[in-house]
Q: What sequence folds into this?
């Protein structure tokens, strides 16, 4: 099994370290030709979604990766990666890959809660640690989207077909169970 990590910007190295520690082979997607290699799953890391969105367009990656996701490639989006997956961004900002029928609010926790840790139950996984950094949350879910976790009534983890999206950073909390859940169809 080989997992591709989008490596344009943000916390991609931390995901690679997690996956490699779990014995999973990784490759990086940095330019268009990387997207044509063979890989079995993909991780979209945290970082800055506006920057990643711009680079995805500049490097002609947006429609290739969208097509792969629509064709069933298992994908995990964390924090900014979740924002990349959202069909709608609250406030009318331009969406990016737009493959998941959810509305996401960026920087949703305001200044005081810019960054925090929590522990909450995630469907099928029990209680897991969650690290939030200028995190989004999910305001609305469309048909077929399963809510996996909430914090204070707000949705922070979802699944839709082959796509898993979380507001937090499993790679910074050493939380392997999220990766196992997303890789489950390949095991
Ligand atoms: N605030 C960032 C954004 O809007 C996301 C933060 C993160 O990925 N930790 O893209």
A:
């Amino acid at each position: 099994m080989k997992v591709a990590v989008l490596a344009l910007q943000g916390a991609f190295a931390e995901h690679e370290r997690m996956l490699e520690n779990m014995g999973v082979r990784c490759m990086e997607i940095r330019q268009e030709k990387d997207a044509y290699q063979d890989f079995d799953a993909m991780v979209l890391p945290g970082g800055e979604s506006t920057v990643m969105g711009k680079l995805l367009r500049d490097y002609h990656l947006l429609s290739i990766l969208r097509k792969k996701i629509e064709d069933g490639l298992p994908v995990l989006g964390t924090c900014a990666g979740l924002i990349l997956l959202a069909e709608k961004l609250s406030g009318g900002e331009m969406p990016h890959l737009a493959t998941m029928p959810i509305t996401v609010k960026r920087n949703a926790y305001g200044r005081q809660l810019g960054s925090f840790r929590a522990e909450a139950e995630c469907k099928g996984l029990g209680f897991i640690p969650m690290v939030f950094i200028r995190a989004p949350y999910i305001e609305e879910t469309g048909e077929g989207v399963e809510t996996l976790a909430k914090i204070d009534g707000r949705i922070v983890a979802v699944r839709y077909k082959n796509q898993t999206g979380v507001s937090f950073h499993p790679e910074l909390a050493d939380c392997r169970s999220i990766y196992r859940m997303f890789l489950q169809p390949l095991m």
About this structure: The pocket of glutamine is lined by residues 46-49, 79-80, 83, 106-107, 133-134 (CB under 6 Å). The CA atoms of residues 72 and 153 lie 30 Å apart. The first strand starts at residue 2 and ends at 6. The longest helix spans residues 12-21.
